[in-house]
Amino acid sequence: MQFSENWLRQYVNPDLDSQELSHVLTMAGLEVEELLPAAAAFTKVVVAEIISTEKHPDADRLQVCKVDVGSGEPLQIVCGAPNARAGLKAPCALVGAELPGFKIKQAKVRGVESFGMMCSAKELGLTEAHEGILELAADALVGQDIRELFDLDDQLFTLKLTPNRTDCLSITGIARDVTALTGAPLSLPQIAPVAVTATQQQSVKVNDPAACPRYAGRLIHGVNAKASTPDWMVRRLERSGIRSISAIVDITNYVLLEQGQPLHAFDADKLKGNIEVRYARNGETLRLLNNTDITLSQDMLLIADDSAPLALAGIMGGEGSAVGDETANIFLESAFFAPDVIVGKARRLNFSTDSSYRFERGVDFGNTVQALERASQLVLDICGGQAGPITEVLQQLPQRKPVRLRLERLNSVLGIALDTALVSTLLERLNFGFTGVEGGFEVTPPSYRFDIEIEEDLIEEIARLHGYDHIPALAPHDEQRMLPSPEASRNSNWLRDTLAASGYQEVISYSFVDESWERDFLGNANPVVLKNPIASHLSVMRTSLWAGLIETLVYNLNRKQDRVRLFEIGSAYHAGENGYEEAGRISGLVYGNAAPEQWATDDREVDFFDVKAEVDRLTAGRAQYVAAQHPALHPGQTASIILDGQPVGWIGKLHPKWQQQHQLPRSAMLFELALEPLLQGKVAAYKQVGKFPPVRRDIAIVVDETITVQMVLDTMRSNKNALISDIALFDIYQGKGIAEGKKSLAFLVLMQDTQKTLTDAEADAVMAELLDLLVQQHGAALRN
């Protein structure tokens, strides 16, 4: 929103200079994006009248002019403008004048003295056009300063308004806010109904009251469409960024800027029958004022007559009913269109208008008729004519519901203490209707404040009016104390440090994956589908972090990195019966040799047990591994990870078909665990260090090859004998001397008593207990 400061000060004139006013507006939420002078700086340029002209004796294109500048004796000035003539009034830069880029001095032009310069608009920095000297009105006062004549000491404000402040898309709205902010008196133009001197009315029908709750218009007969727009109006329009077109169009644009109400003028003689506000029908077309032919869709609201569409409601008029120089009678329209009906339509047609910009955000439905009266008066004053009575179709207007403002809540949010009297004063300055209730106010916003709907909106209004500068910036005050840190809990950084110490590198990948990845790679037929994916191949939420790891692996292999260790800590997402579930995961991928290439060791490809060692570190050795099947992993090298009796993840080798699909020269090893169980550790407990030497006994048993080592270890550890300090496997053997379908497992058993040295008999008794358990549970036999 661009406007002239002098125009604003006609309505409210606070005791502030331009910079101070800019600061006040910005601090109140009406950000001043730009503040520029209305014209370039220049001095000593006055209105002059050319008394006479003579041809220059030595130049065909120059004239010697006698010029009256209002200072007594006429000045002799050499001028080369083709339009210089006797009787013309134009700007004259006197000797010593400073113009944009140069200074005027007394000079000889082809041997003739010249005591100044007649100026064009370009030389004064007013426009880029250079069509001779600038011609002034015949009634311009000779000797008057040009800056005063054209009000060139004006400043142009450009506001960067937020979408909710549509009330400030007009000079009237900005003036109201300035009055509320500064307390300066408000002096808006007095708008009174114009004298009705004609009887004819235009019939209006509104087919959808919800789309157009209020429509008003009037006929004005006998207007002079060729009348000149007054200079003051042209100046205000141009300084608001609107080009002057014709008097009637300029008046509608002027009222738009002044009142915030878009208007439209139809040539009444081009209307056929009644005015109808309706939605477009299939196949209808309309040529707009910008010479664009559009095919209308059924959700577009139109102003039409009995024969055809006339205008796109709230957006742009049609060429067929436009006013022109020959227009004698006009139908002046002012309406309130529902924002939902207008929004997006202009954008769909690849343009925007000042009218649609306002209607999309909402205009003051209480000002519809008043704006029409204002425009009517200007038409009568400038173009003449006779005004008919207003035709108005009024339906159910939007309700301005009271909003409750609690004083306690207000002070709590702002962090300051405002009393009832001060808040009442601020509400009055905003022109908000209110009544006092217990603990606060019931506030009814005016029709032009669409943005006031909830209590927080009122709190914001009070804050900006009271002044953000008056709200102290208090440092937070709180007691400094140590927060509890449970000894058994771990931080996810501990997991990062553990894997980084083993040569892994952390990656962060998208939480979005391809639906086929979830369906085929993970066997998930019910992924969380995104309503608005950023790409077609990222359409669902991941249930595993492996997708990002494998993509990163492929990226590295394509760049000749043949040994890769990656991990990621992130979230996986599931669609459960009670809604969506998000769970933390830690995943890892290992590819290539077990150790970097070096002279001291032979190359060996990483295997299942290398990765199992990493998982054991993450789980502090508490994990158990059970053979299982997973669609992404090798059917013979896959295990489910069990922690405290609950499955928490997977470990295994990438399935050969996925290795082939991703064109991997070798397979990769993968693991993934739920994050939360890994962060729950155990509190360290003191255990007395034995003073007496431990006793080691070995036991070798023969069992079925289907019995896993973990099953045997679990059985032996279930003995709970206090003398046993450790049990570990040190040999597995199948072959000569062992029956087919059997295997030999050899375990070491460490025993220690912290109070005395163990005897052989005590150690033998412990070993006998262990053997009995193994025989009973697994049918084990002592190997000879």
TrEMBL record:
Single GO molecular-function term? Answer: ATP binding
Which cellular component terms (GO) are annotated to the entry?
phenylalanine-tRNA ligase complex
**UniProt-listed Gene3D superfamilies:** 3.30.56.10, Bira Bifunctional Protein, Domain 2, Ferrodoxin-fold anticodon-binding domain, Nucleic acid-binding proteins, Phenylalanyl-trna Synthetase, Chain B, domain 3
Binding sites annotated in the UniProt record for Mg(2+): 451, 457, 460-461
**Which GO biological process entries does UniProt record here?**
phenylalanyl-tRNA aminoacylation
Residue ranges of domain FDX-ACB in the record:
690-783
List the catalytic activities from the record. Answer: tRNA(Phe) + L-phenylalanine + ATP = L-phenylalanyl-tRNA(Phe) + AMP + diphosphate + H(+)
The subcellular localization recorded is: Cytoplasm
Enzyme Commission identifier(s): 6.1.1.20
For this chain's record, the cofactor binding note is: Binds 2 magnesium ions per tetramer.
Domain B5 residues, every copy: 398-473
Stretches assigned to the TRNA-binding domain = 39-147
Q: Which residues form a coiled coil?
A: none
Cofactor names: Mg(2+)
Q: Where primarily located?
A: cytoplasm
Q: Which InterPro entries match?
A: aa-tRNA-synth_II/BPL/LPL, B3/B4_tRNA-bd, DNA-bd_dom_put_sf, Fdx_antiC-bd, Fdx_antiC-bd_sf, NA-bd_OB-fold, Phe-tRNA-ligase_IIc_bsu, Phe-tRNA-ligase_IIc_bsu_bact
Q: Which UniProt key words apply to this protein?
A: Aminoacyl-tRNA synthetase, ATP-binding, Cytoplasm, Ligase, Magnesium, Metal-binding, Nucleotide-binding, Protein biosynthesis, RNA-binding, tRNA-binding
Query: Quaternary form?
Result: Tetramer of two alpha and two beta subunits.
Which HAMAP family does the UniProt entry name for this protein? Phe_tRNA_synth_beta1
Which protein family is named in the record?
Belongs to the phenylalanyl-tRNA synthetase beta subunit family. Type 1 subfamily.
Protein name listed in UniProt = Phenylalanine--tRNA ligase beta subunit
Q: Which organism is it from?
A: Methylobacillus rhizosphaerae
Name the gene: pheT
